[in-house]
Design goal:
Distance between the termini: 54 Å
Structural class: mainly alpha
Shape: elongated
Strand content: under 5%
Helix content: over 70%
Largest sheet: none
Number of helices: 5
Radius of gyration: 16 Å
Length: 100
């Protein structure tokens, strides 16, 4: 039977990666060079958090294999980038919105 912790692991990793990337982006100043590497950093950070979750909190990842934990973490990190872009596009004002 699937527990709440197993279901909440993927969104939790995505939320952690999203928060860390947002803090680093604010600290760095959002330079163009940094922005190009955000998806790669998110993927790597998610993979690291996936491994930490696999070893430090046994049973929270839905796998018995560390490779799958790395893949789940990396996918969660990339979903944080997608979430960032979705929020950015939904809150972005176009030129027609500014003139009205």
């Amino acid at each position: 039977m699937t527990t709440f912790y197993e279901i909440a692991t993927i969104p939790a990793i995505a939320a952690i990666v999203y928060t860390i990337i947002d803090i680093v982006k604010t600290a760095v100043g959002g330079t163009e060079k940094f922005k190009r590497f955000i998806p790669l950093i998110s993927c790597a950070l998610g993979a690291i958090i996936g491994v930490i979750a696999f070893f430090c909190v046994p049973g929270v990842m839905e796998t018995q294999n560390v490779l799958v934990a790395i893949i789940l973490g990396a996918a969660s990190g990339l979903s944080a980038t997608g979430t960032n872009q979705a929020v950015k596009q939904l809150t972005h004002k176009t030129d027609t919105d500014k003139t009205e």
